Fold this sequence. Notes:
The structure holds two protein chains of two kinds. By secondary structure, chain A is an alpha+beta fold. Chain A is built from ten helices and eleven strands. Chain A has two domains: 103 residues, no CATH class; 329 residues, no CATH class. By secondary structure, chain B is mainly alpha-helical.
Amino acid sequence: xxxxxxxxxxxxxxxxxxxxxxxxxxxxxxxxxxxxxxxxxxxxxxxxxxxxxxxxxxxxxxxxxxxxxxxxxxxxxxxxxxxxxxxxxxxxxxxxxxxxxxxxxxxxxxxxxxxxxxxxxxxxxxxxxxxxxxxxxxxxxxxxxxxxxxxxxxxxxxxxxxxxxxxxxxxxxxxxxxxxxxxxxxxxxxxxxxxxxxxxxxxxxxxxxxxxxxxxxxxxxxxxxxxxxxxxxxxxxxxxxxxxxxxxxxxxxxxxxxxxxxxxxxxxxxxxxxxxxxxxxxxxxxxxxxxxxxxxxxxxxxxxxxxxxxxxxxxxxxxxxxxxxxxxxxxxxxxxxxxxxxxxxxxxxxxxxxxxxxxxxxxxxxxxxxxxxxxxxxxxxxxxxxxxxxxxxxxxxxxxxxxxxxxxxxxxxxxxxxxxxxxxxxxxxxxxxxxxxxxxxxxxxxxxxxxxxxxx
Amino acid sequence: xxxxxxxxxxxxxxxxxxxxxxxxxxxxxxxxxxxxxxxxxxxxxxxxxxxxxxxxxxxxxxxxxxxxxxxxxxxxxxxxxxxxxxxxxxxxxxxxxxxxxxxxxxxxxxxxxxxxxxxxxxxxxxxxxxxxxxxxxxxxxxxxxxxxxxxxxxxxxxxxxxxxxxxxxxxxxxxxxxxxxxxxxxxxxxxxxxxxxxxxxxxxxxxxxxxxxxxxxxxxxxxxxxxxxxxxxxxxxxxxxxxxxxxxxxxxxxxxxxxxxxxxxxxxxxxxxxxxxxxxxxxxxxxxxxxxxxxxx
Lengths: 456, 297
């Protein structure tokens, strides 16, 4: 029913609604720099109309709810890309450390191999010269050191990566516990039709952090979200989180377990995935190339030395310690002799013969059983290191670009615009001022009405 | 259409990107290298391993050539002295073969020849740092020692072995001739003919002396012929040295192609990156502070 009181009520509702909307604006402006914050909208709704005869009277406005503006699909793509970036970055970090060992071609195994063969070449010009023989021994020891250093550089990076695994698993467990708590609150609010707003923002931000560590698959359910690893191991279901465990797995490295089951090799994305791939894929591949070279070189070179005679005319023995197995060959690569006279340069047994040096020098241009020369094998190793590094580098920049674009898109939807908020602020202010004017107008009308009954 | 209201990360990314381009160009300019770690260009880095090996090998071959040149020159000089000594011996032999020479004169000539024999013996035992040049591969033992019981007056303690040294990839040279081949071969035996001449002068007839002198002449021709070997090796060493020096230049230029920075391009890159960086900063300074709030009173 129309009347001055009704008008007054409508005006007061409008005042409250505009004030509420101004709160939203204030909150948006306050959170303009909060990571993961999704801007909120004040949702106004017409109050139900009252029908009187043929006239339908509007009864004003209500502030229905604060609605967060978000695009769930974009959010999922951001999680995915973040996991890829985490993976690539972890690999790149470890490869940057490895690369320095193989950066200078005149140093390391390559340089030491060249120096070793050069010392033999020098010896061939004067096979009885003790100095030249001593130089060969020194070069052999340098070669052994170069093998040890390269193997230990790879081993150290592998160790560091291995130590990261339990740390990452702990971080994952902390995050999933927090996510489960917030997830339950979100589900509860959604259950009663409330916009979970800030709580959801916080939860999504935590899922983003989780994605940096491991690739998660996110499914919307009526209990909030369900998070699983890429291969379906549940991490968060509703308000419950499932912890992963870390511990010694087969091969002596730290494994990741879910319910006692080893899921290490199934983790693909995120920092954890990248760490595991570098630790179990890249480094073992490089180490195995290094070991193969060390082992086959030892065998070939010893055979060459054995075909000659040493300075005393005795048949040549081993220059390098024979290696029991290919695995670990680079770390156990060693020089078997300390007496330079034992280098079997002679082909005919007389001290001054250099005939067998040619056999030893031939090792550098002969194919090892793996089908390349020793220097070729090392060159392939450098190529492999470079390719791994270049591909990790490319992956990092590709996913960074994609992630930046996705974040831009997300911000286009959910980001707080100060211009927009300023405009809204003016709108709400004007509406508030107008409603207030209505109140004063109605008030003066009421005064008029009240003064009607008063006799002068 | 709503646009991304928060451009700060994009602006920062643009600034970082241009900054990183600047750093790359600057690093190329300051190091002169385009490839500093294998991932910069994996293939070039791996080819550099081979290049470095080749270049280092060439260094070693050049060192070998230095060492060998010294050995060859020493051997050649020694043989030159042997030839001179033999020439003297021949003159003395001719002098002794004339019918007018008296027994005293022949004895005197024989004395001189004994001196020449000792001199040649010393030359045949030429050594460098304990390594005898004319002992075959038994180069640690003195090749020739006096032995009056032997028809040649000496015993050879060396062997017939020869050494071969690689002076460039696939190029091998023989670096010695054993004394047995140099001084005692079928076409002329230095020590035996000298001994014969001495014996002929001491106890023989004029025609014995003439025959023995002819033997010495044969030995002279034989040594002169063998000496060519050392000259040839020296020539080969010289030409290989030239080849290796050229090879070094080629390898260096290959190295520049593989990992060297294109300085002109790097300098242009630096200028471009600097311009882009300035532009990004200027744009950021213009855009970042603007907001509707600046205009609301």
